[in-house]
Amino acid sequence: MDIVLQQLVNGLTLGSVYGLIAIGYTMVYGIIGMINFAHGDVYMVSAYITAIALALLTFFGIESFPIILVGTLFLTVAVTGAYGWVIERIAYRPLRSSSRLSVLISAIGMSLILQNYVQLSQGANQQGVPTLLTGALRFHVGDGFVQITYMKLLILFISILGMGVLTYVIQKTKLGRMCRATQQDRKMASILGIDTDKVISTVFVIGAVMAALAGVLVTLDYGAFDFYVGFIIGIKAFTAAVLGGIGSLPGAMLGGLILGLSEALFAGLISSDYKDVFSFSLLVLILIVRPSGLLGKPEVEKV
Amino acid sequence: MSQAVGINFKKSSIDALIAGFMALVLFGPIVGVVLDGYNFNAEFGKVAWMVAIVAAGRFVMSCFFRLKKAWRWHFVTRITMKGWRY
Amino acid sequence: MSNAVVRKTLISLAVAGAATLAQADVVIGVAGPHTGAYAAFGEQLWKGAEKAAADINAAGGVNGEMISLVKADDACEPKQAVSVANRLVDSDGAVAVVGHFCSSSSIPASKIYEEAGVIMVTPASTNPTLTDQGLPNVFRVCGRDDQQGDVAASYIVDKLNAKRVAVIHDKDTYGKGLADAMKSTLNAYGVKEVMYEGLTRGEKDFNALITKIRSVDADVVYFGGLHSEAGPLVRQLREQGSKAIFISGDGIVSDEFVSVAGSPKYVDGVLMTFGADPTSYPAGKKVIKEFRDSGYEPEGYTLYSYTAMQVAVAALANNNLDPIKGAKWLKSHSVNTVMGKKDFDSKGDLTVSDYVMYEWDAQGKYSQVD
């Protein structure tokens, strides 16, 4: 019993991280119909910036955890957001009216550029960050226990907060209305006076910021990363986005949670060798029943 | 998409400054602070070079696209019409 | 094709040929993961080989010819290993190769070297298959995973008296081979592992797996794999409150293991099997001192790489630079290296294996367990 509960906790935290990154994929797809393959690498950049921010903050002698956390979050979010903006500006905007394929190739190129750029400047070795927050909450269940570390609590808290704020922004604010309008019909939106280029830029920045949140949290928790770390987690997050219905914001979060939970439960209760096989089979099954994902709307072919 | 004629040094300089600032934000941490275990080695010289190159390049481009000649190049108009604003 | 073009091509070919003849260096490839997640090991390989080549050149080279090294980067990927192996034998004209690092790269590459008649001396690939293929040109100056697995298994049974052993591997040739070797010896001792599972290389979240380790109540966790996964694994194991003893093989011999694990306190007590301290041989004192004087600590595989270079050069030097004869010669002659005298058996393995158990301490350093 305690093991199942523990696996639920593991899956929930993993899933919320997937969800955060999946938001970047889903929003970009929703608004310009492209798959941003560089998104996983934006996450990777944010992991590096986290470690760099930590190193800088400790260099300046700051030791209290809350200040370090806030400082790291702020720096990482700001710089990664800038990366998101610049990537869109130089790799995607010039191709705005070309075929979808060119943008896709451009995205793959951007992903390679980011990986190699980080590898060249930071070296190819494994990087790590020191453990800052230790300790855990333990609940005794039967004769075992379920534990959730404070770091995992923080992951859950910040990702729920991030998703909540984002949902509020998209649903209630003027910026959100502009995003939704652009998503529905870009040409009409621009005729009605919405600066769609700006909206698209904003969406990329939002995606990068969410990836940065995930990057800070995951890096602080697992402590290990290299320049290639964006690949696997990017694929997983993309899967989550497709699972939940690509283009749908709540879908990305739901997809992330389902993917994380299914991986953890399968790895924990059956076999970790085949957990990826299981989660991708689940994806296939869901796509057979609902081709546009769990919460996705069936796509109307745009002419 | 201003069909400007002649070089406007003030505007180009501002463009270059903005591009340089962006380059500083992007390259500053990743290139300038090279992780070494839990510590780091500063490589600010490299960052300075990269920022200088970006700013200079942007300045040249910005000046170039204000010349009437530049607009005759078909590929330039193609790029610029599709979202590059100068 | 017009005559003029043909003539031009011929001339350029002749010029190119003359250029290579004029250089007539002994080209030796250093193949390993110079980039990628395992680049730390590639650097160890390169440092060792570079130093060996410099020392040999300073002492007059190989029969008067200078060694020139070619860096070949396989990134620990089998496909890339094959293509760099082809490049080394075809366009670089290497007569010997020091490398590769990962067994999964060495095995496919070894066949290419065999076809080209190039001596391959790996400083680090320990998978038994590499020499069990029966290729005449393949040698290693490190041990074999089955020997390594034996040492780990007997340590677990005899010294630790552990009954509940969880075996984890990274599904790669090296990691799985090592875990399997350990497991079969363990079973021969009559201990059945409580868990045998693989994890995915490149992932960092192993919490689900660790909860499972906790649920089977393992006393010992044996991991076959490299430090990039071992670090997060041991950290998350400790974070989940498990006190199980963590044992791994020679894939975690790097200081990066500590930084990846998040803190030296997590690696405290981690055990690993590795060749007897390569810095302990009297023959290596001078080289080690020179390394340290130049500000580089010859850790992990550095000296193995130096040794591999010496072995390859000895084979070439005593056989008039003929790699095929050299490979035959190595099987019946011993070579004096910085790691003592090395003898090879008919497969190309060392005749003496010297695996011992090391333990990491709370300062993030490792030392031999006696």
Automatic annotation (TrEMBL), chain A:
Main location: membrane
Coiled-coil region(s): none
Molecular functions per Gene Ontology: L-isoleucine transmembrane transporter activity; L-leucine transmembrane transporter activity; L-phenylalanine transmembrane transporter activity; L-valine transmembrane transporter activity
GO process terms (BP): D-alanine transmembrane transport; L-alanine transport; L-isoleucine import across plasma membrane
Keywords carried by this UniProt record: Amino-acid transport, Cell inner membrane, Cell membrane, Membrane, Transmembrane, Transmembrane helix, Transport
CDD domains (alphabetical): TM_PBP1_LivH_like
TM region(s), chain numbering: 12-35, 42-62, 68-87, 150-170, 199-219, 225-246, 253-271, 277-296
Gene Ontology cellular component list: plasma membrane
Membrane-related topology note: Multi-pass membrane protein
Subcellular location: Cell inner membrane
Family: Belongs to the binding-protein-dependent transport system permease family. LivHM subfamily.
Protein name according to UniProt: Inner-membrane translocator
Originating organism: Marinomonas sp. (strain MWYL1)
